[in-house]
Write a structure and sequence with these properties.
353 residues, alpha/beta, two-stranded antiparallel ribbon
Length: 353
């Protein structure tokens, strides 16, 4: 690659190498950090000042002129391999180099051109992430254009906690086209510093601004009904309604129904005890790798599916039904594992369960 602005204005060489990269010598490493380093360099700043004075209208990124020193098939093939991994929901960081090696074994010799040297072979995590960002922008661009041209937009917000105890905000958008058809798209997944309403509102506004969505046509907000979302004084819905007066907030029917069923079942002592036993059974196996291994071995011996004992969550609809259904299919393995823990390891909890 060469820098068009620097090659045009030829900044004077005061110190350093006699031949500047991007100017006299084309750069062989197609990496974003190399471009950023050149942008901040003194010769490039000199060239930019002269270019501005000429008022020619070139932008910084437009100034980089790619030179064909690598077969385009190799770059395109690398993007296709990465796209296939992501499309099939496979680990792209670990499988991308392996997939390129497989392609070479099958006769795609042009992938050798991706190896500039030992350090730069277009297979590192950084390169894969940058390629993935490019693919994501290409895929996302027509979707965002479709949303921007829609008649009405509604947001669906759900705050979740992953296995590493990081709070994340799951954003989906529903939009209405000119013919009245409703479409639902995933918008973004944002990591939150905390679960406060102010943090959630700031994250939502940041995504709306970054995606350049028309907030004047934002009419709906769907939440899970949590207090931080629906608080009357300082909830997420209240703050967003203050900023977007046309916004109408509704709580998810499935969440509300699940909570109503939970409150109704608490009035029946048998149902409350039954739910508690299911949860205790789940925690008994989840909190011990040895007990989980015993359950897995029992399921294998009995020829059953290796199914885990599912958790009962009051805020998740159908969680109790799925837990009971799973226990029914795997009941003999669970009973065998409990008997093993009670007799071999003399576990009083297993005996009680």
């Amino acid at each position: 690659m060469f820098c068009r602005i620097c090659r045009q204005h030829k900044p004077p060489i005061k110190k350093g190498p006699l031949k500047w990269a991007f100017i006299e010598v084309g750069i062989l490493v197609f990496r974003k950090d190399y471009i950023e380093r050149h942008i901040s360099s003194e010769p490039h700043q000199y060239s930019v000042k002269h270019q501005v004075s000429l008022a020619s209208g070139y932008s910084v990124m437009q100034a980089f002129e790619p030179t064909v020193i690598m077969e385009h098939e190799a770059v395109i093939g690398g993007f296709k391999c990465l796209y296939w991994l992501v499309k099939n929901e496979m680990a792209h960081h670990t499988n991308y180099p392996k997939l390129l090696s497989l392609a070479q074994l099958l006769g795609c010799d042009y992938f050798e051109n991706l190896k500039v040297d030992q350090r730069n072979n277009y297979q590192s995590h950084r390169i894969v992430d940058e390629m993935l960002e490019i693919l994501a922008e290409i895929v996302e661009s027509p979707i965002l254009e479709e949303i921007r041209s829609s008649q009405a937009i509604s947001l669906e917000v759900d705050e979740t906690t992953d296995v590493s105890v990081n709070r994340q905000l799951d954003l989906h958008v529903r939009h209405l086209d000119k013919e009245g058809y409703v479409f639902n798209h995933f918008l973004d997944l944002v990591t939150l510093e905390d679960g406060k309403a102010d943090s959630v509102v700031a994250a939502i506004k940041s995504v709306l601004q970054k995606k350049d969505l028309p907030v004047d046509r934002l009419y709906g907000l769907g939440t899970d009904g949590a207090a931080v979302m629906t608080g009357r004084l300082n909830g997420v819905a209240k703050q967003l309604t203050d900023s977007f007066p046309k916004l109408v907030s509704v709580a998810c029917d499935a969440h509300r129904l699940a909570l109503a069923c939970k409150d109704a079942s608490n009035a029946v002592r048998y149902m409350a005890n039954f739910r508690n036993h299911l949860q205790e059974l789940h925690l008994f196996f989840r909190n011990s790798a040895n007990r989980s291994a015993t359950l897995s071995a029992a399921a294998t011996t009995l020829g059953l599916n290796d199914l885990k004992v599912k958790e009962v969550k009051d805020t998740r609809w159908l969680s109790q039904h799925l837990a009971v259904q799973n226990l029914q299919r795997n009941l003999t393995a669970v009973l065998a594992a409990l008997a093993e823990e009670a007799t071999t390891r003399k576990c009083p909890v297993a005996k009680g369960l």
